[in-house]
User: Fold these one by one.
Assistant:
Number 1:
Amino acid sequence: LDSTFDKESWYAPFKHAIEGLTAEQAIWKPSGEATNTIWENVNHLIYYKERLAANLEGREWTHNLDGDETFYLTNQSND
């Protein structure tokens, strides 16, 4: 799990990629584009990392969502 968050690999560590990002930047979406915001992608990553951790630890995972639902786990806000 930490290899994605803060260890160097062939891709930028997630922690460094979002460091200093404001909420306003994270919810920005180009007008007319069918794409996810950074905020939505973070929700998606968190969901699957937590599900993987639960499975590895032998904990029951009861938050079964389809892939699209995982992008909208939290409300986007400028706060």
Number 2:
Amino acid sequence: MPLAGQVLDEYLHQVSITENIHNKWWSESVEQFEQGKLAMLIAYMNLFNDVAHSNIFPKIGFAPVPGGVPQLGGGALGVSRYSQKTHYAEQFYRWLYSPIVMDHLILLGGNSKSSRFQP
């Protein structure tokens, strides 16, 4: 099976075991992250203002994206520092911020500060 098919199969598997949060805004997701119910979170940075003043703040960490070329915008990806599977999160981030994925993101209307885009 081609790599893209394997990635899609793995993504569909992950969707089947993830928490589906039915809400109208991001705050419920952030609350669940604060409570330790989510190991990983994609959210806008402004929603983390309260987290910076909560009990969870000393327990979370962050780092520059692999390759040092982040997607511009207000979003953020989060992984619990206590995750038992950080290797998988690292693999996901390396794939997500890889040049080929970033090129596709740009072609689909996204943006990136990378100057190496190859249409």
Number 3:
Amino acid sequence: MLNLGLDFAFLHNRLSGTLEYYDKNTTDLIYDYAVSTTKYLYRSLTANVGEINNKGIELTLHAVPVKSTHFNWNTGIVASHNKNIVTRITNQEFSTDYVDLADLGGAGQSNAFQQRLQEGAPIGQFYTWEWAGYNDAGISTFYVRDAQTKQRTGETTITPTNKDRTITGSAQPKLTLGWNNTLTYKNFALTGMFQGVFGHKVMNATRARHSNVVGNAGQKNLLASVIETEKATDINAHYLSDRYLENGNYLRLANLGLSYNIRNIGGQLKNIKLYATMNNVFVLTNYKGVDPEVDLGGLTPGIDNRQTYPRTRTILFGVNFNL
């Protein structure tokens, strides 16, 4: 692993930070490979073959924009960019051109894999059908691709097959951001923590499942927005494709706190601190699902498939003191 860092400080440490570059190879990753039953007793064997490279930069900044007798403002930012590449999934004994992952299923969809793992590409690249709009009957159509050239043929179909899938996006974010602030005025202190992720895609499989206006009619829940916009004749409305591949960008105010210190009131109590905090204050996003903050780790990142529980907003009041 290569790790290079630069520390800096200016203006009597009113502005300081660290710039770091890293390049890390991870080897001997485990996966189940299909093998010949004439050579082995089983159809698949678990082998340590895979290799992944992660390289990126991380910038940490701390600043004191305002410093006075009664008012101070301290702020800190951590911004990072990571590039993930699968460098090897095959060797002389165990070989494969690619591995299809994230079989999310769904009515009328067999082997509905939504991601493809292959050398030279990142983990979490989406490999889906391309939605082409509606035909005259109000049914969703999808672009047809040539099995050999992998290019669009210019035709569309209501019965897409695996050959019609193509790379449509990546779950790997281009920027991850954290921003902390502390503002103090006399005995008051206000703190806030923002977090954000930008430049990646999320497969909203939950929305797809609840868009099945034909299959779910009269028996299962449908989204109100689907009832208003979806065509009642669309038997393919729930088919997973880039139609449900959304920008996962978000900026969340994760924590907000306000406190007041009473340093000396006499008697037995000392250093009294009254405080109130709120978690999950708000989130700015165009994502249509419950929460854009889905799992971005593992082999199948960036998928919202009915496993996301709504994040709660909590408010806490408290008091600290010394005797």
